[in-house]
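Task card 7
Instruction: Convert sequence to structure tokens.
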Amino acid sequence: MNEKKLYETTFVVDGNLEDEAVQAVIEKVKGVITSLGGEIQNVSEQGRKKLAYTIRKATIGFYVHIEFMSEGPLLKELERQYRLNEQVIRFLTIILDKRLLEMRERVLKYGTAPVAVAGQEGEAAVPQPVKA
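Output:
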């Protein structure tokens, strides 16, 4: 049996749709996740935003982020459902790794991202002001 991992899926619904139609798309995506054994952790509706370029004749998109725990097989079906739904104009699903989650917790706790310190392996030194 596969280990459950934390995923984040972000999708853009055609912004020209009515609010009820957008909510129906969101509920359908949530239904696909839960029906295949996924556990939804967080849903964040970012709202309507102007797209950087036209996608399928749409200039406005409604952005939605969903974090969920799942095993790998759910992802193929979720992406298949995205492709079949003409109202979803873009989507991306990623695994949230431990480093990203730790950084997110630190930002929420302290309000800033960690700064690289000179001497730590794999990290660049922070530039210091030069005294004349």
